[in-house]
Amino acid sequence: MGGGRIDCYLDIASLFSYVAFVDLIGNLDKLAANGVEVEFHPVFLGGIMQASGNKPPWTLQAKAKYLSYDSRRAMASRGITNWASPPNLFELARTQSPLRALHHIKANFPPAALHATFTALFRRFWAPPHANFTDDAVLAATLAEVVDAKGQRVFSDEQVQSIMAARDGMKDALKAETGKALELGAFGAPWIWVTNEAGKAEPFFGSDRFCQIYNHLGIPHQDVQVLAPGAKL
């Protein structure tokens, strides 16, 4: 058995979207070998939260305290070391501009370009001093710095200008994709919609559900196991 697809709805302002993205990117080849297609969908988390009636976890003191532990552990589990929570996260979370740029890239460039851009935007957003992508100059500079696996620039200066100019035309695409996530039951990000080979689809929320996702897909994977003392790793 095996096969199916994973549709991952994410926003660069979501730390756990960052974790899920890194996890999936690191497994793309193996998932493809198992017949699983992966697609990333840029969505505006602020719109999802408002429409679903959800609230940011840091607005509840107990959750905010827990997040200081959970965020650190989640990022470390994926090897992400240069990061911190922005002190002005609420302001920086107005990510419509880079999300629209991602939609243009997704529609006009190969998937590898989208993946490299997501990587660059996540890094710049979460690594100090935390890029403010409401500033067009900051977004353009980041797009110019996007590199592929060989360290080569993905976009020329002309392409960066074209992407920046095309963002207004992507408003409806971002709105539609955010609406689609809401139709699928999203109340936060990452929202992961998984369809197995038999066509059965189920939602998964967060960055720590991959064992359950792979069970649903019916593909081989290793789950967490407690070993006997002295067992060989």
From TrEMBL:
GO terms for molecular function: glutathione peroxidase activity; glutathione transferase activity. GO terms for biological process: glutathione metabolic process. Coiled coil: none annotated. One of its GO terms (cellular component) is mitochondrion. Residues 6-217 form the DSBA-like thioredoxin domain. The keyword Transferase applies. Pfam families: DSBA. InterPro entries: DSBA-like_thioredoxin_dom, GST_Kappa/NadH, Thioredoxin-like_sf. SUPFAM superfamilies: Thioredoxin-like. The keyword Transferase applies. Keywords: Transferase. This is Glutathione S-transferase kappa 1. It comes from Purpureocillium lilacinum.
